[in-house]
Amino acid sequence: MKSLEELKALREQMQSKMNVRKDDNETIRVVVGMATCGIAAGARPVLNAFMEEVNKRGLNNVQVTQTGCIGVCRLEPIVEVFVPGQEKVTYVKMNAEKVPAIVAQHIVNKQVVTDYTIGAAE
Amino acid sequence: MNFVRAHVLVCTGTGCSSAGAEGIISAFEDQLKKNGLDEEVRVVKTGCLGLCAKGPNVVVYPEGVYYNYVSAEDVPEIVEEHLLKGRPVTRLIHGDAEDASKATNLTDTAFYKDQVRIALRNCGVINPEDIDEYIAYDGYAALAKVLTEMTPQQVIDEIKASGLKGRGGAGFPTGLKWQFAANSPGPVKYACCNADEGDPGAFMDRSVLEGDPHSVLEAMTIAGYAIGATEGYIYVRAEYPIAVERLKKALEQSHEYGFLGKNIFGTDFSFDIGIRLGSGAFVCGEETALMVSIEGKRGEPRCRPPYPAVKGLFGKPTILNNVETYANVCWIINHGAEAYAALGTEGSKGTKVFALGGKINNTGLVEIPMGTPLRQIIEEIGGGVPNGKKFKAVQTGGPSGACIPASQIDVPIDYENLTRIGAMMGSGGMIVLDEDDCMVDIAKFFLQFTVDESCGKCSPCRIGIKRMYDILDRITAGKGTLEDLDTLEELAAHIKGNALCGLGQTAPNPVLSTLKNFKDEYVAHVVEKRCPAGSCKALLNYTIDPAKCKGCSACSRVCPADAISGVVRSPFVIDQSKCIKCGSCMEKCKFGAISKG
Ligand SMILES: Cc1cc2nc3c(=O)[nH]c(=O)nc-3n(C[C@H](O)[C@H](O)[C@H](O)COP(=O)(O)O)c2cc1C
Ligand code: SF4
Ligand code: SF4
Ligand code: SF4
Ligand code: FES
């Protein structure tokens, strides 16, 4: 370690690995309903797809996490996306194929994928 | 690289390690593998989270769910329910938050929410054995800034402006200390760290070393640059094996990365740090004794002046700072003196770490802004006195310290206010006392400690403190007189004025402050031969009230001394000459017929 730049580069690289422990207002959170109903409906592949997609794009401001029953079992698998400063968006009847679009449009470009939301389903 | 979606932080501080943290780590690793989660969930060792008494402690991120009293048997449930299905295991969640629905997050708990963690900023947050995690949390950024952007004088000015004072007990302004050493001429100087932490009940410094060793090494290097030193020593208690181990690892990693050694960050500044193990004597924490102990001689204090800043280790200009003092330094450089000085009060800036112990629900480690009222520490952060008992006093500063009586519970905790009411900050031990604690006995406890730890070099301390101890011993045995109380004060004044080092000079404090605040308790012992707290055994009598006694004989069956006799269905009696005051009979009696007094 000979320079400030080297230290900064290492810090940034490490910060992306520690993003999970951050509790701030800049982090986007993707929450997948993983209670028994969600798992039965296929939430696990959805969670995997989100992790894969976020990893592939090297997004380090995104937390992917899971929660218990969100409450609308018939629409499972359900995913909630929290973008700081915006309303929560709930995507329903999710599958792995829908994930890349949500990551690309919503998480990266901040455009909600309306076709997949709870509003569209109801 | 895989995406890691959750981190399981397992505390591996001394408290949680002794409660079985290692077993929990391996249980998590097994269970994660079993559930196919080992690639997406990482188990991380971390430092002290503060609530050591409720350990082993585990925090699961990103939610920040704080689990207490975790056992290896609980791990499958945490993995299957929380990490797989997203349902935190409520029965293990630390439950002191006012709003139960928010109780899941560590930072919302009553214990954490009023704390401001600067010295402890990385404790329980990063893996102390991984320099990369330290770097992710701004580690070594302060050193880089200092070496590439600041002159030594600018560093000293920054520390001065922050208002930081020594956290080892004496509260001397840190920037000024550095200035003195910087002004001392000479090519060879030393920047050292005092990690001897000898006060009974204190574990602030241990927790910093265990949870964030790099922060101390980085700060020592900055201090070295500021005063013009190229070498430093950290003098650490040998009884802290985990801290020593982590320090060694940190030193190694720091060398590997080039943060220690020659030409740090490509500048012409070089610095190195050595570890020296303490010899186990309390007096070796005193600065002059510590330095001769590093030199390999017997750790005895010497007269000051000359002060270490002029003539210290190996006769060279030296600064010695406490672990917690150093733990603040990098934060000050990174965030600016102003940000630090914005915390706290007029004369006491920043925060202070306390080891909260005794009769308090949340025993543990807390860091609060200076000026926080004692009441908030006891009632909110500490969760109050257990078992509905009455709060009586806190003792701060250990064997050199004093007590703050309940009547002063609203005092803001800072240097000035504590001095004003005749108490002191000390190094951070804070022992909570309730109605069952006898103040004479507390004073005696600390005096016993100083008698044992006196190095014997000067007579006021060697003989005087022993005399004071003997008097307290007599008083607690019911053999004291009113003159004894005057003698205590006379002896105290003489010892304070004539002892050579801080150990002797401060040893009478616990007696003086209890005499001042709880004189009536001393008087009750000597005049009425009574211990109001019901704690001094020699002054206790257990008696059976014949009007309430049903003659069930339960008491006589539990008495280990065969002191109770009687005929069934008529009142029993206790033979005071046989009674060893164990209290078993009183606990056993279902009719409340036995009382003590
Ligand atoms: C008997 C005695 C024991 C002491 N023990 C310690 C100790 O364990 N740790 C500590 O930091 N300072 C201890 N001190 C205070 C040190 O002498 C010194 O003031 C301190 O290390 C300076 O660092 P600071 O300015 O950062 O507080 C002790 C002092 C005395 C008189
Ligand atoms: S005051 Fe006590 S500990 Fe200090 S030098 Fe004298 S005898 Fe030793
Ligand atoms: S206090 Fe203990 S020793 Fe004394 S009478 Fe009761 S049981 Fe026996
Ligand atoms: S246990 Fe109580 S009631 Fe029974 S004999 Fe002893 S004092 Fe009397
Ligand atoms: S050692 Fe685990 S919380 Fe303090």
Structure characterization notes:
The complex is a heterodimer of chains A (122) and B (597). Chain A has 122 residues and is of the alpha+beta class. Chain A has one domain: Glutaredoxin (3-Layer(aba) Sandwich), CATH 3.40.30.10. Chain A is 40% helix and 16% strand. The longest helix of chain A has 15 residues, at 4-18. Chain B is an alpha/beta fold and 597 residues long. In chain B, helix 10 (213-227) packs across helix 13 and helix 18 runs antiparallel to helix 19 (482-498). Chain B is globular and about 90 Å long. In chain B, a hairpin with a 5-residue loop joins strand 9 (351-358) and strand 10. At the A-B interface, helix 1, strand 1, helix 3 and strand 2 of A face strand 1, helix 5 and helix 6 of B. FE2/S2 (inorganic) cluster is lined by residues 11, 13-16, 48-52, 55, 57 of chain B.
Give me the number of helical elements of chain B. 24
Strand order in the sheet with the most strands of chain A: 2-1-3-4
Uncertain spans of chain B: 97-102
| Strand-pairing-aware structural class of chain B | alpha/beta
Q: Note the beta-strand portion of chain B.
A: 5-15%
Please tell me the CATH architecture of chain A by its name. 3-Layer(aba) Sandwich
**Might you state the CATH topology name of the largest domain in chain B?**
Rossmann fold
Structural class of chain A: alpha+beta
Strand content of chain A: 15-25%
Find the count of extended strands of chain A (DSSP E, 2+ residues).
4
Bound ligands: flavin mononucleotide, iron/sulfur cluster, FE2/S2 (inorganic) cluster
Please tell me what the overall shape of chain A is: elongated
Biggest sheet strand order of chain B reads 10-9-13-11-12
